[in-house]
Every structure is written in structure tokens, then in C-alpha cells.
Design goal:
Blueprint (H helix, E strand, L loop, with lengths): L1 E4 L19 E9 L2 E9 L13 H19 L4 E6 L7 H10 L4 H6 L1
Parallel strand pairs: 3-4
Antiparallel strand pairs: 1-2, 2-3
Helix pairs in contact: 1-2
Length: 114
């Protein structure tokens, strides 16, 4: 079990957004199941406050999702994973594509809808 705080978590001068005050990061727990180990993650990236063309925090989320992917790949080493939480990105955005490409994760909800 553990928690990794992201290196980028907003700006002190935008304290009214709240993201700088709270730890944004990724939590981890390894669960023993009858079928073997299952790694469960809880992810929270910096919130979206503006539309895409004015989104000051887009690079923060990309960096956070890159950092999350590195963490998952280092910790899980082939175990199946469940990723829960708030990516704060759409599936067509860079941070999401980066995370799923680096980890091999798939969107179960989207797959179930097809």
C-alpha cells in the first residue's frame, strides 16, 4: 500500500483553485484474490477549470499521467490492475492516450458499451 504525490500540483498563486493545497497523486493497494494478486490504484489529477483552449493545467495533467504510468509500470510488473479515480481528461486527450499507451490499460466502460 502506498501513495505517491505528483511533482506538479498547481500553483501557490492560484490557491483559490484548491489543487495546490491538497495532495494530487496516485494511491496503491495490492489485493490478494483467489486468482492471484490484483493491483488497485486510485488516481486524482489536477482539476479542469477552463475550456480546452484556456486550460492552464493541461501540461500538469499530462505530466501527472506520465508520472502515474511510470509508477504503475514500476509497482505492478505484470499484475492485473484496476485504476479508479479522476483523470480529469477526455479519452481523446494526450494525457489519457499517454497513460493507456504506456501501461496497456483499457477503458472497461468503453469496451462494455461497444
Amino acid at each position: 500500500m502506498g501513495f505517491r504525490r505528483f511533482r506538479l500540483s498547481g500553483s501557490a498563486e492560484t490557491i483559490y483553485h484548491g489543487d495546490y493545497i491538497v495532495d494530487k497523486g496516485i494511491g496503491f493497494a495490492r489485493v490478494q484474490t483467489p486468482m492471484g494478486e490484483l493491483d488497485v490504484y486510485l488516481l486524482h489529477t489536477i482539476a479542469r477549470y477552463q475550456p480546452d483552449d484556456q486550460d492552464y493545467y493541461h501540461p500538469h495533467r499530462v505530466a501527472q499521467l506520465f508520472e502515474a504510468a511510470l509508477y504503475v509500470n514500476t509497482i505492478s510488473k505484470g499484475n492485473p490492475i484496476i485504476m479508479l479515480g479522476d483523470f480529469n481528461v477526455r479519452t481523446d486527450q494526450l494525457g489519457y492516450r499517454l497513460f493507456t499507451t504506456m501501461t496497456g490499460a483499457r477503458n472497461c466502460y468503453a469496451r462494455a458499451q461497444s
